[in-house]
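Lay summary. Proteins are chains of building blocks that fold into shapes, and those shapes determine what they do. In this project we predict the shape from the chain. Here is one chain we studied, written as its sequence of building blocks.
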Amino acid sequence: MHSPSSMKAGVVANYAGQFMPVVLGIVFTPVYIHFLGIESYGLIGFYITLQGSLAVLEMGLKSACVRELSYFSAKGKKGALAMRNTLRSLEVLYWLAALLIGILLVSSSSWISRNWLNTSVLSTDQLENVLFVIAWVIALRWPTGLYQGALTGLQRQLLLNGLLVMFSIMNWLGSVLVLWLIQADIIHFFLWQSIVSVISSLVFAIAAWASMPKAKARPAFSLQRLKEILPFVAGTGSNAVLGTILLQADKLIVSALFPLKIMGYYMLASLMAGVVAMMVGPVNNVVYPRLSQMIGAGTSEAELATFYRLASQLASAFAIPVGLILAIFSQEVLFAYTGDIEVASAASVILSILALAKMLHAEVIIPYSLQLASGWLRFSVYVNIGSVLWIVPAVYFLGMHFGPEGAAFAWLLVTCGYVLLGLPVMHRHLHVGKWKHWFFSALFLPTLILSSFLLSVRFLMDHLLAIENRWQILMMLGSLGVITFLLTFMMMPELRQLLQGMRKETKDIK
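And here is the predicted shape, written in a compact code that computers can read:
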């Protein structure tokens, strides 16, 4: 077993790596809008959505890389060659996929510029040129996912997140400098992105291979290795396709149903709600390889169940406070961010719904990682198939009748189904304790107490306090975040034990 302090170090490193892009994105998004205008900024939103949609081509290879390297790392020197052959084999597939992505996007750029996107700022030819650059930005950045997965599987959290921080600064701050000092237009923005894509792919590749254990033979492409991980890739690949449809369908349908201004509100709300999932991502980056390693080492069911409960509660401690604050104080959050009361008012209900949906979705991340680590993928494929069959018509129907708020509500219903219908089956099958106990301790109790507290604060603000200054609102939201975070830790016994273990180890070191 790994010590609580080592788990703490990994979580802290992952939060640094994943929150830097979020923080920089929040800081610089208004700057991008200032330099480019809202319509050109819409192209950046389209690029992000397109990049997310093309995640289907990843087909679970990154998850397979994490799982395989974690599994063989538990075998010491005996697993070194298998680890190196796994990375080389997946590397070949990734670079071939990157080339395919670039060719497909370039060949379709003319059709997209004439039939999908509607812009009054750029001519059709200018838009096609921008899409050409976007195609190769996405293609060149594609292989970094594999190398990040390799570093995660090798549990090189500090190195991985140090590189993520460095390239986040290059990406966001560098783009602002290009727009400010060279030329404030969208083509120069994406040209800089392409430069960062090339450098990041090369640096991550070097870092991943330098971190691999040494072996007597050179790494080689191995069809046998690919055949061995094919069942896992097939399961996670199916889930990757279905998961991408689930995550992107609402945005794509909303972009087709509503004007660009409404799409802007929806994308802004989706961006802010995405912070909830980002809170759990760093925890999962530590938990998933540990689960794979524990299962590979034959850890007892009782010990595995204890670690799973701890991981679930840790994820809840980060997701629930943020999700509820975004949902209950959505208008204040948006106003503090944009400074535009009209935008805050228009997007607030959408943000409230999406924040709750993302909170519930975050609760499923650790259970899904347990399914991946256990190799039990069929159930999640069935769940996602049912979700896709629901989400596409539901977003269209509810969006047509109730606007973008209806489209967001369709996604909330999906996440409710995950928690209330899917997780009970998973808990029974994998023998990690009763679902009712998990539901009460990790979700229901902290949500009930925190929502009661936050709604009381909401009532006081509406009837007794008049806070209109952006900085005062920001300070209030930050204070609520700290208070709710501490309250959540106090409600979860396993997390209190974790903190006590950390304090004991600190005293022992001293």
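What the prediction tells us: The chain is about 85% helix and 0% strand.
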